[in-house]
Amino acid sequence: MPTSNAKQPKLLEQVRQRLRVGHYSLRTEQTYIPWIKRYILFHGKRHPRDMGKAEIEAFLTHLAVDRHVSAATQNQALNAILFLYRSVLEIDVDWMTDVVRAKRNPRIPVVMSADEVRRVLAHLKGVNQLLASLLYGSGLRLMEAVHLRVKDVDFDYRQIVVRDGKGAKDRVTPLPERVIEPLHRQIAHVQALHDQDLEAGYGEVYLPNALAALYPNAASELAWQYVFASEQLSRDPRSGKTRRHHVSEKGLQRAVKNAVRAADVHKKASCHTFRHSFATHLLERGSDIRTVQELLGHKDVRTTMIYTHALKRGGHGVTSPLDT
């Protein structure tokens, strides 16, 4: 029987290949591979096949006790290791259901008042102001905003369609009247960039593999371009193609941090605080909690109910005895 001389790819390369076959995002790839590498190095470069529950628990304990990582970070590391065993090594890991996941302590979200939101937005300019306005006015997550495609802005129905949001779900959320004119200008700017790219022999935008196969010409159409396209072309790290990607979320994060400081808002506010404020302000104005749940894309209404603790009614909705 003939034997193949082809070498088996190294473990981390196998992980990368499996992630791409499974159509995982580049962000997931950039997260999982370093965690798997750290897990292997922590145990003296032993092969994961030779390790099990005890080694995983030791690594997770090290992260919590020695590295002081958050519960979310610890769970992220566990998810990466689970992927390694289940999807790459194809090892039956029923025993891993016994591995204790770190629990997040419930925290009341930071919420800005409507006045604080206006002050922060006033200290932002251009694309950053428009992006932040959508985070607040439409309740978008940061990456949902930067991933927004031209086709998903519905001016006629005054709505935004969020595609493949958290939990791989689509949802619809309102398009604020105040952003319609600046959004039209932004899309006109993107069209000019796109026409320029097509003339130069480029013009393709990244599409997930399944969509690229289903719609082979879509990558070159304006409808699929990012609303917040980068001003610079860049090389796709996976395909090697030169494309125009979306703006980096880091630029907005820095701008919001500076705007919060300049607006004299003495809260630990970030980009996500706009989304918290969107939900809280809707509830304050009488919106039904189930409606807010749908707008936010929460699977469980209990996730949405955390915002009832932030309503402008005092702690737990009671009046202080000092004021009675």
Give a description of the structure.
There is one protein chain. The chain has 324 residues and is mostly helical. Helices cover 47% and strands 4% of the residues. It has 13 helices and five strands. The strands form two sheets. The chain has a three-stranded antiparallel β-sheet with strand order 1-2-3. It is globular. The chain starts with 10 loop residues before the first helix and ends in a 20-residue tail after the last helix. The mean pLDDT is 89.
- Residues in β-strands, percent: under 5%
The largest sheet, given as strand count, sense and whether it forms a barrel, is: 3 strands, antiparallel
Rounded to the nearest angstrom, the distance between the terminal CA atoms is 90 Å
Strand order of the largest sheet: 1-2-3
Count of helical segments? 13
Task: Tell me the series of helices and strands, N- to C-terminal.
Answer: HHHHHHHEEEHHEEHHHH
Mean pLDDT: 89
Helix content: 40-55%
The tally of beta strands, per DSSP, is 5
Instruction: Indicate the radius of gyration in whole angstroms.
Output: 23 Å
Task: Give a short synopsis of this structure.
Helices cover 47% and strands 4% of the residues. The protein has 324 residues and is mainly α. The protein starts with 10 loop residues before the first helix and ends in a 20-residue tail after the last helix.
